[in-house]
# Entry
Amino acid sequence: MPHRIPVVFFVLFFSLSGCGQDYSLSPPVDSEEITVTVKLPKKLKAETMWVMYRSTKCKRVSYGASGQRHERDGHHSVYKELQRQGQSDLYQIKLPKDGGGACKWHLANVTFGINYAAPTRFGKDVTSGAEAGVVVIFDHNNSPRGGADTEVDGDLTIKKDYYPWIDEEFLGPYKKTISLVGEGSIYRSYEALTAQQVYFEPVLHSDFIVYSAGPKVKKKGNYTVFTYPDGSVVADGRGGPDFQKLQSIRLAAESKK
# Structure
């Protein structure tokens, strides 16, 4: 007899007890605001910000195969663009902490990134690769990208170094991308429960480009080859550039000036 594969059905829905059917945001006019400011280098652009609100009143409910009930705080996502401040290099947005509405939403976390504004300046076939960015958590819940790497008291100021990374891949469809290399994970996460101001300043070291080329033949021991700004070549199985090596190369070069 053929094997029978059990199928489990999950029913997901919002339980809006006490909320009617309205779970939209409606921030009060006197809501306290959090200001997010990004100081953006000319060659970079700010990606759309993902803003998440949570509600302890309007629960997200799921039922398992045996009918067991699982409750979690409801969540509501909105997407916002940071606005340039005059002719400056500052981009800003103000977010109400109190999302209001029948569900009594509160600001939970924001996710925002940066990337090259014009990848084709590196070649007509170059496309955008991995962006770099920041997650800021304003309550005690994880963000969609997990928990915080760093916890801070009060306002949050972030100033990080980034390097251009041009990568060519030959296995599968050919592609050539430009990405930003920073310290740690692509998105750094911060918990800032009492912040009213969030300031992010990416420092782009555009003269220190790292190049990489993936293998053309899939074979054990064939690794991506990284060529660093000082001319050194490394192929050690690493999945991305060595940030600390880039830092050392730049600092050594700057100390000779």
In short: Residues 8 and 43 are 49 Å apart (CA to CA). The radius of gyration is 23 Å. Helices lie at 243-255.
